[in-house]
Amino acid sequence: MTVDDAGEWLALPGRGGPRGVVLDSWRRARERRLDPESVLPALEFDSDLEDYRSSHRLAAVMPLIRRLLVRDVDGEGLLVAVGDENGRLLWVEGDAAARQRAERMLFVAGANWAEDRVGTSAPGTALTLDHGIQIHDTDHFDTIVHGWSCTAVPIHDPETRRILGVLDITGDARAIAPFTLPLLEATAAAAESQLLAQRLAQRPPMVEEPHRGVSKPSQQASRRAARSSAVGVAPVLRVLGRDTGELDLGGRITPLSTRHATILALLAWHPQGLSSEALRELAYAEGAAEVTLRAELVRLRRLLAQAAPELTIEAHPYRLSKRLELDAHQVLALLDRGAHRVALAAYAGPPLPGSAAPGIADIREVLRRRLREALLTDAAADVLLQYAATPEGATDVAVLREALRQLPPHSPKRAAVVERLEVLER
To answer: Which of 49, 246, 340, 366 could form a disulfide with 45 if both were Cys (CB 3.0 to 4.6 A apart)?
Structure first.
Protein backbone atom coordinates (compact mmCIF):
# COMPACT_ATOMS: atom_id res chain seq x y z
CA MET A 1 0.00 0.00 0.00
CA THR A 2 0.92 3.65 -0.25
CA VAL A 3 -0.56 6.94 0.86
CA ASP A 4 -2.44 9.20 -1.53
CA ASP A 5 -2.65 12.96 -1.26
CA ALA A 6 -5.60 12.79 1.16
CA GLY A 7 -3.65 10.52 3.49
CA GLU A 8 -5.75 7.50 2.61
CA TRP A 9 -4.22 4.12 1.84
CA LEU A 10 -4.04 3.17 -1.82
CA ALA A 11 -4.12 -0.60 -2.24
CA LEU A 12 -1.84 -2.02 -4.89
CA PRO A 13 -1.47 -5.72 -5.75
CA GLY A 14 1.36 -7.58 -4.05
CA ARG A 15 2.50 -10.82 -2.53
CA GLY A 16 0.94 -10.49 0.90
CA GLY A 17 1.92 -6.84 1.17
CA PRO A 18 4.88 -4.86 -0.10
CA ARG A 19 8.31 -4.86 1.45
CA GLY A 20 9.39 -1.72 3.29
CA VAL A 21 11.75 -0.61 0.57
CA VAL A 22 8.98 -0.98 -2.03
CA LEU A 23 6.44 0.79 0.18
CA ASP A 24 8.87 3.70 0.58
CA SER A 25 9.32 3.85 -3.18
CA TRP A 26 5.54 3.86 -3.73
CA ARG A 27 5.23 6.72 -1.26
CA ARG A 28 7.79 8.72 -3.20
CA ALA A 29 5.86 8.03 -6.41
CA ARG A 30 2.59 9.27 -4.89
CA GLU A 31 4.32 12.36 -3.54
CA ARG A 32 5.27 13.12 -7.15
CA ARG A 33 1.61 12.61 -8.14
CA LEU A 34 2.37 9.68 -10.44
CA ASP A 35 -0.62 7.65 -11.56
CA PRO A 36 0.04 3.86 -11.53
CA GLU A 37 -2.55 3.37 -14.28
CA SER A 38 -1.18 5.84 -16.79
CA VAL A 39 2.51 6.51 -16.15
CA LEU A 40 4.93 5.59 -18.95
CA PRO A 41 8.63 6.30 -19.37
CA ALA A 42 9.56 9.18 -21.65
CA LEU A 43 11.64 8.59 -24.78
CA GLU A 44 14.42 11.13 -24.33
CA PHE A 45 16.69 10.12 -27.21
CA ASP A 46 16.02 9.83 -30.89
CA SER A 47 18.70 10.27 -33.53
CA ASP A 48 21.19 11.40 -30.89
CA LEU A 49 21.06 8.13 -28.91
CA GLU A 50 23.99 6.51 -30.70
CA ASP A 51 26.22 9.57 -30.23
CA TYR A 52 25.34 9.84 -26.56
CA ARG A 53 25.88 6.22 -25.62
CA SER A 54 29.07 5.83 -27.68
CA SER A 55 30.57 8.72 -25.69
CA HIS A 56 29.30 7.45 -22.32
CA ARG A 57 31.91 5.91 -20.02
CA LEU A 58 29.97 2.66 -19.76
CA ALA A 59 30.40 2.07 -23.50
CA ALA A 60 33.95 0.94 -22.71
CA VAL A 61 32.69 -1.96 -20.55
CA MET A 62 29.84 -3.11 -22.77
CA PRO A 63 32.02 -5.86 -24.36
CA LEU A 64 32.65 -7.19 -20.84
CA ILE A 65 28.95 -7.04 -19.90
CA ARG A 66 28.02 -8.81 -23.13
CA ARG A 67 30.52 -11.61 -22.45
CA LEU A 68 29.44 -12.09 -18.82
CA LEU A 69 25.68 -11.61 -19.12
CA VAL A 70 24.11 -10.99 -22.51
CA ARG A 71 25.34 -14.08 -24.31
CA ASP A 72 23.85 -16.30 -21.58
CA VAL A 73 20.33 -14.80 -21.63
CA ASP A 74 19.66 -15.00 -25.36
CA GLY A 75 16.83 -17.47 -25.87
CA GLU A 76 16.08 -17.54 -22.13
CA GLY A 77 13.34 -14.91 -22.04
CA LEU A 78 15.57 -12.42 -20.20
CA LEU A 79 16.90 -8.97 -21.05
CA VAL A 80 20.07 -7.17 -19.95
CA ALA A 81 19.78 -3.40 -19.78
CA VAL A 82 22.41 -0.75 -19.06
CA GLY A 83 21.35 2.80 -18.24
CA ASP A 84 23.04 6.07 -17.40
CA GLU A 85 23.14 7.79 -14.02
CA ASN A 86 19.81 9.52 -14.74
CA GLY A 87 17.92 6.27 -15.37
CA ARG A 88 17.87 6.54 -19.15
CA LEU A 89 18.34 3.13 -20.79
CA LEU A 90 21.24 3.09 -23.25
CA TRP A 91 21.37 -0.59 -24.19
CA VAL A 92 18.63 -3.24 -23.96
CA GLU A 93 19.85 -6.60 -25.25
CA GLY A 94 19.05 -10.27 -24.90
CA ASP A 95 16.15 -12.52 -25.86
CA ALA A 96 14.47 -11.31 -29.07
CA ALA A 97 10.93 -12.33 -28.06
CA ALA A 98 11.31 -10.65 -24.66
CA ARG A 99 12.54 -7.46 -26.35
CA GLN A 100 9.40 -7.37 -28.50
CA ARG A 101 7.16 -7.75 -25.45
CA ALA A 102 9.16 -5.16 -23.51
CA GLU A 103 8.65 -2.59 -26.26
CA ARG A 104 4.96 -2.44 -25.30
CA MET A 105 5.92 -0.86 -21.98
CA LEU A 106 8.71 1.24 -23.57
CA PHE A 107 11.48 -0.75 -21.91
CA VAL A 108 13.75 0.26 -24.80
CA ALA A 109 17.00 2.13 -25.35
CA GLY A 110 16.42 5.86 -25.03
CA ALA A 111 13.57 5.58 -22.49
CA ASN A 112 13.86 7.13 -19.03
CA TRP A 113 13.11 4.65 -16.22
CA ALA A 114 14.14 6.91 -13.36
CA GLU A 115 12.03 6.46 -10.24
CA ASP A 116 10.74 10.04 -10.40
CA ARG A 117 9.36 9.29 -13.89
CA VAL A 118 7.84 5.80 -13.64
CA GLY A 119 7.77 5.00 -9.93
CA THR A 120 9.13 1.75 -8.55
CA SER A 121 11.34 -0.31 -10.90
CA ALA A 122 14.66 -2.01 -10.38
CA PRO A 123 16.76 0.36 -12.54
CA GLY A 124 15.23 3.56 -11.17
CA THR A 125 15.00 2.49 -7.53
CA ALA A 126 18.55 1.05 -7.53
CA LEU A 127 19.79 4.48 -8.64
CA THR A 128 17.67 6.26 -6.02
CA LEU A 129 18.90 4.03 -3.18
CA ASP A 130 22.43 3.55 -4.57
CA HIS A 131 22.40 -0.20 -3.98
CA GLY A 132 21.14 -3.36 -5.62
CA ILE A 133 17.46 -4.23 -5.52
CA GLN A 134 15.04 -6.87 -6.80
CA ILE A 135 11.50 -5.93 -7.85
CA HIS A 136 8.95 -8.71 -8.32
CA ASP A 137 5.94 -8.43 -10.62
CA THR A 138 3.35 -6.34 -8.76
CA ASP A 139 6.01 -4.60 -6.68
CA HIS A 140 6.23 -2.27 -9.69
CA PHE A 141 4.31 0.97 -9.20
CA ASP A 142 3.28 1.16 -12.86
CA THR A 143 0.62 -1.49 -13.52
CA ILE A 144 1.73 -1.96 -17.14
CA VAL A 145 4.95 -3.50 -15.78
CA HIS A 146 3.09 -6.12 -13.73
CA GLY A 147 4.05 -9.57 -14.96
CA TRP A 148 7.72 -8.59 -15.21
CA SER A 149 10.43 -8.95 -12.57
CA CYS A 150 13.84 -7.33 -12.48
CA THR A 151 17.11 -7.01 -10.58
CA ALA A 152 19.41 -3.99 -10.86
CA VAL A 153 22.63 -2.66 -9.34
CA PRO A 154 24.37 0.70 -9.75
CA ILE A 155 27.79 0.96 -11.39
CA HIS A 156 30.19 3.45 -9.81
CA ASP A 157 33.26 5.39 -10.78
CA PRO A 158 36.02 3.18 -9.29
CA GLU A 159 37.81 6.17 -7.73
CA THR A 160 35.21 8.82 -6.85
CA ARG A 161 32.37 6.26 -6.26
CA ARG A 162 30.03 8.58 -8.15
CA ILE A 163 27.21 6.66 -9.85
CA LEU A 164 27.93 6.16 -13.55
CA GLY A 165 24.84 4.13 -14.40
CA VAL A 166 22.83 1.02 -13.70
CA LEU A 167 22.95 -2.65 -14.75
CA ASP A 168 19.66 -4.56 -14.92
CA ILE A 169 18.23 -8.01 -15.74
CA THR A 170 14.53 -8.04 -16.60
CA GLY A 171 12.20 -10.93 -17.46
CA ASP A 172 10.15 -13.55 -15.66
CA ALA A 173 10.71 -14.86 -12.12
CA ARG A 174 14.21 -16.01 -13.07
CA ALA A 175 15.23 -12.34 -13.16
CA ILE A 176 14.95 -12.30 -9.35
CA ALA A 177 16.39 -15.76 -8.66
CA PRO A 178 18.64 -15.86 -5.56
CA PHE A 179 21.82 -15.90 -7.63
CA THR A 180 20.85 -12.95 -9.87
CA LEU A 181 21.72 -10.12 -7.50
CA PRO A 182 25.22 -11.51 -6.64
CA LEU A 183 25.74 -12.12 -10.36
CA LEU A 184 24.99 -8.50 -11.21
CA GLU A 185 27.05 -7.22 -8.28
CA ALA A 186 30.04 -9.26 -9.44
CA THR A 187 29.61 -8.06 -13.03
CA ALA A 188 29.41 -4.44 -11.87
CA ALA A 189 32.58 -4.97 -9.81
CA ALA A 190 34.33 -6.42 -12.87
CA ALA A 191 33.21 -3.42 -14.94
CA GLU A 192 34.48 -0.99 -12.30
CA SER A 193 37.83 -2.82 -12.17
CA GLN A 194 38.16 -2.54 -15.95
CA LEU A 195 37.33 1.18 -15.83
CA LEU A 196 40.03 1.66 -13.18
CA ALA A 197 42.59 -0.27 -15.26
CA GLN A 198 41.74 1.88 -18.26
CA ARG A 199 42.16 5.08 -16.27
CA LEU A 200 45.49 3.99 -14.78
CA ALA A 201 46.75 2.98 -18.21
CA GLN A 202 46.10 6.52 -19.46
CA ARG A 203 48.21 8.16 -16.75
CA PRO A 204 51.81 8.81 -17.79
CA PRO A 205 54.60 7.64 -15.46
CA MET A 206 56.32 10.40 -13.49
CA VAL A 207 60.04 11.16 -14.02
CA GLU A 208 62.39 13.30 -11.98
CA GLU A 209 63.05 16.73 -13.51
CA PRO A 210 66.84 17.39 -13.52
CA HIS A 211 68.19 19.70 -10.79
CA ARG A 212 64.77 20.33 -9.29
CA GLY A 213 63.64 16.92 -8.06
CA VAL A 214 60.16 17.63 -9.41
CA SER A 215 58.20 14.78 -10.94
CA LYS A 216 56.57 15.39 -14.30
CA PRO A 217 55.58 13.25 -17.29
CA SER A 218 58.33 12.64 -19.83
CA GLN A 219 57.67 13.74 -23.43
CA GLN A 220 57.65 10.13 -24.59
CA ALA A 221 55.26 9.14 -21.80
CA SER A 222 52.99 12.07 -22.64
CA ARG A 223 52.83 11.00 -26.26
CA ARG A 224 51.98 7.45 -25.18
CA ALA A 225 49.30 8.74 -22.81
CA ALA A 226 47.78 10.86 -25.56
CA ARG A 227 47.59 7.87 -27.85
CA SER A 228 46.11 5.73 -25.08
CA SER A 229 43.59 8.44 -24.28
CA ALA A 230 42.56 8.54 -27.93
CA VAL A 231 41.89 4.82 -27.76
CA GLY A 232 40.12 5.30 -24.42
CA VAL A 233 40.69 1.86 -22.91
CA ALA A 234 43.44 -0.44 -21.72
CA PRO A 235 44.28 -3.22 -24.19
CA VAL A 236 42.87 -6.68 -23.55
CA LEU A 237 44.32 -9.88 -25.01
CA ARG A 238 41.78 -12.67 -25.46
CA VAL A 239 43.20 -16.18 -25.65
CA LEU A 240 40.68 -18.31 -23.74
CA GLY A 241 39.18 -21.05 -25.88
CA ARG A 242 40.84 -19.65 -29.01
CA ASP A 243 43.58 -21.11 -31.20
CA THR A 244 44.58 -17.59 -32.23
CA GLY A 245 44.62 -14.39 -30.23
CA GLU A 246 42.57 -11.22 -30.35
CA LEU A 247 43.88 -7.85 -29.20
CA ASP A 248 41.05 -5.51 -28.19
CA LEU A 249 41.63 -1.78 -27.79
CA GLY A 250 38.22 -0.40 -26.97
CA GLY A 251 36.44 -2.27 -29.70
CA ARG A 252 39.28 -1.99 -32.22
CA ILE A 253 40.12 -5.64 -32.79
CA THR A 254 43.45 -6.93 -34.12
CA PRO A 255 43.73 -10.67 -34.83
CA LEU A 256 46.98 -12.34 -33.79
CA SER A 257 48.63 -15.52 -34.96
CA THR A 258 49.10 -18.30 -32.43
CA ARG A 259 52.80 -17.48 -32.11
CA HIS A 260 52.28 -13.74 -31.61
CA ALA A 261 49.44 -14.38 -29.16
CA THR A 262 51.70 -16.82 -27.29
CA ILE A 263 54.49 -14.27 -26.90
CA LEU A 264 52.14 -11.46 -25.81
CA ALA A 265 50.32 -13.75 -23.37
CA LEU A 266 53.60 -14.82 -21.78
CA LEU A 267 54.76 -11.20 -21.41
CA ALA A 268 51.38 -10.21 -19.94
CA TRP A 269 51.51 -13.17 -17.52
CA HIS A 270 55.07 -12.21 -16.46
CA PRO A 271 54.84 -8.39 -16.20
CA GLN A 272 58.20 -8.20 -14.42
CA GLY A 273 59.86 -9.30 -17.67
CA LEU A 274 61.61 -12.36 -19.07
CA SER A 275 65.16 -12.89 -20.19
CA SER A 276 65.74 -13.93 -23.78
CA GLU A 277 66.50 -17.49 -22.68
CA ALA A 278 63.41 -17.70 -20.44
CA LEU A 279 61.10 -16.37 -23.14
CA ARG A 280 62.48 -18.87 -25.68
CA GLU A 281 61.98 -21.78 -23.29
CA LEU A 282 58.42 -20.74 -22.51
CA ALA A 283 57.38 -19.90 -26.08
CA TYR A 284 58.85 -22.82 -28.06
CA ALA A 285 58.07 -26.42 -27.18
CA GLU A 286 60.76 -27.75 -29.52
CA GLY A 287 63.35 -25.20 -28.49
CA ALA A 288 64.49 -22.39 -30.75
CA ALA A 289 67.60 -20.47 -31.58
CA GLU A 290 68.02 -16.92 -30.36
CA VAL A 291 67.72 -15.62 -33.92
CA THR A 292 64.31 -17.31 -34.29
CA LEU A 293 62.89 -15.48 -31.28
CA ARG A 294 64.38 -12.16 -32.38
CA ALA A 295 62.92 -12.49 -35.86
CA GLU A 296 59.48 -13.21 -34.40
CA LEU A 297 59.76 -10.23 -32.06
CA VAL A 298 60.64 -7.95 -35.00
CA ARG A 299 57.46 -9.03 -36.79
CA LEU A 300 55.36 -8.67 -33.64
CA ARG A 301 56.76 -5.19 -32.91
CA ARG A 302 55.97 -4.14 -36.45
CA LEU A 303 52.39 -5.35 -36.05
CA LEU A 304 51.98 -3.54 -32.70
CA ALA A 305 53.38 -0.30 -34.14
CA GLN A 306 50.47 -0.29 -36.58
CA ALA A 307 47.70 -1.71 -34.42
CA ALA A 308 48.58 -0.54 -30.89
CA PRO A 309 51.42 2.02 -30.92
CA GLU A 310 51.00 2.66 -27.20
CA LEU A 311 51.94 -0.98 -26.50
CA THR A 312 55.60 -1.74 -27.14
CA ILE A 313 57.94 -4.61 -26.28
CA GLU A 314 61.02 -3.46 -24.40
CA ALA A 315 64.22 -5.46 -23.99
CA HIS A 316 66.69 -6.47 -21.24
CA PRO A 317 64.52 -8.11 -20.03
CA TYR A 318 61.73 -8.49 -22.54
CA ARG A 319 58.63 -6.80 -21.09
CA LEU A 320 55.61 -4.77 -22.13
CA SER A 321 55.64 -0.99 -21.88
CA LYS A 322 52.21 -0.97 -20.22
CA ARG A 323 49.89 -3.45 -18.59
CA LEU A 324 48.15 -5.79 -20.99
CA GLU A 325 45.02 -7.35 -19.48
CA LEU A 326 44.58 -11.03 -20.25
CA ASP A 327 41.09 -12.49 -20.26
CA ALA A 328 42.68 -15.15 -18.04
CA HIS A 329 43.52 -12.40 -15.50
CA GLN A 330 39.85 -11.40 -15.45
CA VAL A 331 38.79 -14.96 -14.61
CA LEU A 332 41.25 -15.10 -11.71
CA ALA A 333 40.12 -11.70 -10.43
CA LEU A 334 36.50 -12.85 -10.42
CA LEU A 335 37.46 -16.01 -8.53
CA ASP A 336 39.29 -13.90 -5.95
CA ARG A 337 36.05 -11.93 -5.41
CA GLY A 338 34.07 -15.13 -4.97
CA ALA A 339 32.11 -14.47 -8.18
CA HIS A 340 32.22 -18.10 -9.24
CA ARG A 341 29.27 -17.96 -11.61
CA VAL A 342 30.62 -14.94 -13.48
CA ALA A 343 34.13 -16.41 -13.54
CA LEU A 344 32.81 -19.61 -15.07
CA ALA A 345 30.86 -17.61 -17.65
CA ALA A 346 34.02 -15.65 -18.50
CA TYR A 347 36.07 -18.84 -18.84
CA ALA A 348 35.62 -19.67 -22.52
CA GLY A 349 38.09 -22.57 -22.40
CA PRO A 350 41.83 -23.15 -21.91
CA PRO A 351 44.12 -20.47 -23.34
CA LEU A 352 45.37 -21.08 -26.90
CA PRO A 353 44.50 -24.79 -26.93
CA GLY A 354 46.40 -25.19 -30.22
CA SER A 355 49.66 -23.87 -28.76
CA ALA A 356 52.29 -26.36 -27.57
CA ALA A 357 54.31 -23.66 -25.80
CA PRO A 358 55.38 -24.80 -22.29
CA GLY A 359 54.56 -21.38 -20.83
CA ILE A 360 51.00 -21.51 -22.17
CA ALA A 361 50.61 -25.02 -20.75
CA ASP A 362 51.63 -23.59 -17.36
CA ILE A 363 48.95 -20.88 -17.61
CA ARG A 364 46.35 -23.49 -18.59
CA GLU A 365 47.19 -25.55 -15.52
CA VAL A 366 47.07 -22.57 -13.15
CA LEU A 367 43.65 -21.56 -14.49
CA ARG A 368 42.30 -25.12 -14.39
CA ARG A 369 43.50 -25.70 -10.84
CA ARG A 370 42.35 -22.31 -9.48
CA LEU A 371 38.92 -22.61 -11.10
CA ARG A 372 38.38 -26.17 -9.91
CA GLU A 373 39.57 -25.49 -6.36
CA ALA A 374 37.40 -22.36 -6.05
CA LEU A 375 34.31 -24.17 -7.28
CA LEU A 376 34.83 -27.17 -5.04
CA THR A 377 35.40 -24.92 -2.04
CA ASP A 378 32.54 -22.47 -2.31
CA ALA A 379 30.34 -22.84 -5.40
CA ALA A 380 26.63 -23.66 -5.50
CA ALA A 381 25.36 -26.90 -7.02
CA ASP A 382 24.14 -25.32 -10.26
CA VAL A 383 27.53 -23.69 -10.84
CA LEU A 384 29.26 -27.01 -10.23
CA LEU A 385 26.96 -28.63 -12.78
CA GLN A 386 27.77 -25.90 -15.29
CA TYR A 387 31.46 -26.66 -14.80
CA ALA A 388 30.74 -30.38 -15.16
CA ALA A 389 29.32 -29.58 -18.60
CA THR A 390 32.70 -28.22 -19.80
CA PRO A 391 35.40 -30.45 -21.32
CA GLU A 392 37.59 -29.96 -18.22
CA GLY A 393 34.84 -30.87 -15.78
CA ALA A 394 33.06 -33.60 -17.73
CA THR A 395 35.02 -36.41 -16.07
CA ASP A 396 35.66 -34.76 -12.70
CA VAL A 397 34.19 -37.15 -10.14
CA ALA A 398 34.89 -34.83 -7.20
CA VAL A 399 32.92 -32.00 -8.80
CA LEU A 400 29.95 -34.26 -9.52
CA ARG A 401 30.00 -35.69 -5.99
CA GLU A 402 30.00 -32.20 -4.47
CA ALA A 403 27.11 -31.14 -6.72
CA LEU A 404 25.19 -34.26 -5.68
CA ARG A 405 25.84 -33.51 -2.01
CA GLN A 406 24.37 -30.01 -2.39
CA LEU A 407 21.33 -30.86 -4.52
CA PRO A 408 18.04 -31.10 -2.59
CA PRO A 409 16.81 -34.68 -2.03
CA HIS A 410 13.95 -34.33 -4.52
CA SER A 411 15.82 -32.38 -7.20
CA PRO A 412 15.16 -33.79 -10.69
CA LYS A 413 18.85 -33.22 -11.48
CA ARG A 414 20.05 -35.87 -9.03
CA ALA A 415 19.24 -38.85 -11.26
CA ALA A 416 21.38 -37.55 -14.13
CA VAL A 417 24.29 -36.81 -11.79
CA VAL A 418 24.10 -40.28 -10.22
CA GLU A 419 24.03 -41.87 -13.66
CA ARG A 420 27.12 -39.94 -14.76
CA LEU A 421 28.97 -40.89 -11.59
CA GLU A 422 28.15 -44.56 -12.07
CA VAL A 423 29.50 -44.43 -15.63
CA LEU A 424 32.71 -42.67 -14.56
CA GLU A 425 33.33 -44.96 -11.61
CA ARG A 426 32.42 -48.19 -13.37
So the answer is: 49
